[in-house]
Every structure is written in structure tokens, then in C-alpha cells.
Description:
Elements: H1 12-22, H2 24-60, H3 72-111, H4 113-118, H5 124-157, H6 170-175, H7 179-198, H8 201-226, E1 230-235, E2 246-254, E3 259-261, H9 271-280, E4 282-290, H10 295-331
Antiparallel strand pairs: 1-4, 2-3, 2-4
Amino acid sequence: MTTTALAPTVSAPHLVRWLLRLHRPALAVWTAAVVVLGAALLWLGGPLADAAAAGWQQYKACPAGTSCAWDQAAVLRYQDVYLYLSWAVLVLPFAVAAWSGAALIGREVETGTARLSWTQAVSPTRWLAAKLAAPGVLIAVGTGLLALLHRRVWLAGEHRVYAARSWLSFETYYANGPLPVALALAGLTGGALIGVARGRALAALGGGLSLTLLLWGLVQLAVPRLYPAVTTYTGLRHDGPGGSGLSLGSGLVTADGTRVPDVYCGTIDYPPCRAVYDKLDVVSFYHVYHPESHYWPLQLVGTGLVSAVAGLCAVAAFALLKHRTTAKAAAV
């Protein structure tokens, strides 16, 4: 009997329950990770942020030129814990990709468990749909909750805690929005695609991780250039280009409008710099960048791009699985 001759008879709720039982250890680990990280973020955005803000106020209350006792340890503790938890949130998509490629798909294809499932009135298409749908909901909810809590933490420390991470810092920029959710889902579907393609747990683990890492790098390079940036021109009496944000390029502008690299000399009021600028015939600084007001547009562009890749990976996984099972059934 071939897999194509069997009509699916297992109900969707039964299939989901079977999937959750099969991957109960992974579900327990995921739930524990979300709960622990969520509790830690609440602690960081509450008591730790309050203690760090109080310590910084003690420092600022010290008269100039005097030495005062202040709770420096609370400020440093807040900074360290913030950094650790931010990276924990950012690592989740890679953990999802590794699990999806190795345990969710690759191992079952390698051991023959998947083919056994297809002979139990579950078609390959429904099997893969259940494999992606149920974990996808849990992953999206868990990662989304942690991203929301992370943003709450950042807002709790902004303008209150000394040296709190700016919106531009790498870990804050990526953990503060919906991008981790899209990356986690891309890790799920990308790992599934590699698992179907390779059919080996270890190979699927490495392939899923590599695909997710490649996608993250693509987001960092492409997204700032997919949304219109701001360009400011600053007079040479300034020390350098004006405007702050996610920089895409800066330098000098000549009298005919040509952009040339910055020589990093400083203001034209300094005679040696005036001589350099006169020789180059430059008239101003320029700076191309994304200000803080572009944060959400950039996040949405990045999320859309990653979500599109996640969808393409899912479609490719279904197409590849159908092709392989149909070809094997025809050979039988």
C-alpha cells in the first residue's frame, strides 16, 4: 500500500495532541524558558531598574568636587542583567531553528518515524502542516511576549539609569520589536525545509542554524537601505557631520556637489583644517542616517522581509515533501 492511496482520517485536534505528546520535553523546555526569561525581565524592569535609578540619583546629588557614597553596584548590575537577557531573547530564533531542523523534522525523517505516521491515515501534507502550525503558534506567542517585556524593560530604564542602552545598540534594536518573532518563525520553517531536504538530524541542525544566521545578516545589511534615509548637511564650523541615528554614510560635500570621504579634521575655525578644506574645495558636511523616528518603520520592513522568507521556506518544504513522497509512491 502506498502513502498516496490513504485518505486522511485523523482529526486535526487529535493530530495536534499527538504532536504535543511526542514533543513534550521540547514543549516543557520552551515553556520553562519563556516563564524564566519573562520573570527575569519583569524583575529587571521593576526592582532592578528602580534600584539603578535610585543609585544614579545619589551620584548626581553629590556636590561637584566631592566624593559621595552611591549605589554603583545597582547600576552595574542593571546593565549586566539587561545585556544578558537581551541576548537570551535574540538567541531564541537560533534555538528554534536547531530544534526544528533536528528534532521536529530531521530526526523523524531519518529514523522512519515520519513514514510510519504517513501510513497511519495521516498524509505527508497534513503531517508537515501539524508540525509547523502547532509549534508556530507557541513560538510566536512566547517570543512575542518576551519582546514586549523587553521593550517594557528598556522604557523603564530610558532616561533614568546611567548608561542605559540606546535604541541604536545592537541588542536593543533587535530585541525591542517584532523582528525576533519573525526570525523565530523563519527558524522554524527554515529548519523544517532543511530537515525535509537533508533527512538527517545533525545535518538539519547545522543547516537550520546557518540559514537563520544568514537571514539575520541579510536583515542587518538590507533593511536600512530598503527604507528612505534622512540626509543632513552641516556647515564646516561644526566639528563634523550633524544628526544622530543609524548611520549609512557621512563625509564632505564639495562646491560642485560631489561627496568625498571625511578627513576627520574638525571645525573650519581651526586654521590647519581651513587649509585642508580649501584645498579640497569642500563647503559642508553630509550625513545619511535613520533617526530614532524611523525605528518602527525599519522594524516593520525587516519583519515583513523575514516573514516573507519564512513563508517561502514553508512553501518550499511542502513542495519538496510532496515531490519526494509522490516519486517514492510511483516507484513502488
